[in-house]
Amino acid sequence: MLKQCLNKAFSVAMALLVLFSTVSFTVEKHYCGDVLVDAAIFTDVEKCAMEAFEMLQKKTCCKDEIDVVKGQDELKFSSFEDLDLDQQQFLQAFIDSYIGRFESLPKHTIPHKDYSPPNLIADIQLLDQVFII
Question: Under a CB-based contact definition with an 8 Å cutoff, are residues 62 and 48 in contact?
Answer without folding.
Answer: yes
